[in-house]
Design goal:
Blueprint: H1 2-22, E1 33-39, H2 59-72, E2 77-80, H3 91-104, E3 108-110, H4 120-129, E4 134-135, E5 139-141, E6 152-157, E7 160-168, E8 181-183, H5 186-197, E9 203-209, H6 212-221, E10 227-230, E11 236-241, E12 244-249, E13 255-264, E14 267-276, H7 285-302
Parallel strand pairs: 1-2, 2-3, 3-4, 7-9, 9-10, 10-12
Antiparallel strand pairs: 1-13, 5-8, 6-7, 11-12, 13-14
Bound molecules: zinc ion.
């Protein structure tokens, strides 16, 4: 027993020494594996349209896939890079979407401009009922006390501390204008966060509400940020860089991004895949019932 205990302590000391010698890579303990599922641009796609050949996307299916992943990987982090509501105002649908996002239990959600499509008051009212883990590092609300989102999140996963920041590009608000919201310069906010927290973090994730092209620029400028998950531009994209990865999971929740991260000596190994969101894991019965009710109401209102 004592030998095993001292063996563990000895191994821990070796790991610390190795990390001191090799300097600060993004996370410090060898052999740790992290699993992250990520979405963006869900666009309030409640269920697959099944139009043409496309049977992908929909919260009814996504919920079951996430449940299956959590069964296999209990430490799974679930994050979203924004635009989970519609591109146009439709309170009834957006309200249901917020409830579903809440039920699925995301660990962090970067605010996109579509979250304001029905107005800030609508968002705040719904968030009061269904508190979501919303974050934005560079949105400032000038009219109200901003208590419905946090600037960043620091999440413990096993023995690691993972920092998540969320930046939105100002041009995202070109079509959904909200005068009560100010977009702060992104680089200032990223640098403030890094200066305050970088030393105590093992891994930094940026939810970037902007294109992967912007993501690549941010990756080059801030090598401290290991993972950049983009949103807004509806693209499916993966680019591995030296100890960094830039990702976006496509449009309308057609794919769920699933990223496995292993620190292997001096390298961070990223294994990413895009899981098609279809009926493979069945449909969430509760969600299906709520979606059916919603479409029934929609039809009744139309007649
Ligand atoms: Zn957007």
């Amino acid at each position: 027993m004592m030998i095993r205990k001292f063996g563990k302590q000895y191994l821990f000391v070796i790991v610390i020494v190795i990390n001191c010698i090799y300097g600060a890579l993004s996370f410090h303990l060898l052999g740790q594996t992290i699993h992250i599922a990520y979405t963006a641009n869900l666009n309030c796609n409640l269920e697959a349209c099944n139009c043409g050949d496309n049977d992908l996307g929909g919260m009814v299916q996504l919920a079951n896939i996430i449940d299956a992943l959590r069964d296999s990987f209990p430490d799974l982090l679930l994050i979203d890079s924004g635009d989970f509501l519609k591109t146009y105002p439709l309170e009834d649908a957006n309200r249901l979407m917020i409830e579903m996002i809440y039920t699925i239990k995301y660990d962090a959600i970067g605010l996109g401009e579509q979250e304001y499509v029905d107005g800030e008051d609508f968002l705040m009212k719904e968030i009061e009922k269904y508190p979501l883990s919303l974050i934005s590092t560079n949105i400032r609300c000038n009219v109200k006390e901003s208590n419905y989102f946090q600037s960043y999140k620091i999440l413990p996963v096993d023995t690691l501390s993972i920092g998540i920041v969320s930046i939105i590009r100002p041009e995202c608000f070109d079509f959904i204008r909200r005068p009560e919201i100010e977009i702060l310069p992104e680089e200032n906010e990223i640098e403030k966060f890094l200066a305050l927290h970088q030393d105590r973090l093992d891994l930094i994730i940026l939810l970037l509400h902007g294109s992967y092209r912007e993501g690549l620029k941010v990756a080059e400028k801030y090598p401290e940020i290991s993972i950049i998950i983009c949103g807004h531009t509806q693209e499916k994209y993966e680019k591995k860089l030296e100890n960094q990865i830039v990702l976006q999971s496509g449009v309308d929740g057609e794919f769920l991004g699933f990223l496995k991260i292993v620190r292997d000596n001096m390298k961070i190994d990223f294994q990413n895949k895009f899981i098609p969101v279809n009926d493979t894991h069945g449909k969430n019965a509760t969600f299906q019932e709520k979606v059916d009710e919603y479409f029934q109401r929609f039809e009744n209102d139309a007649n």
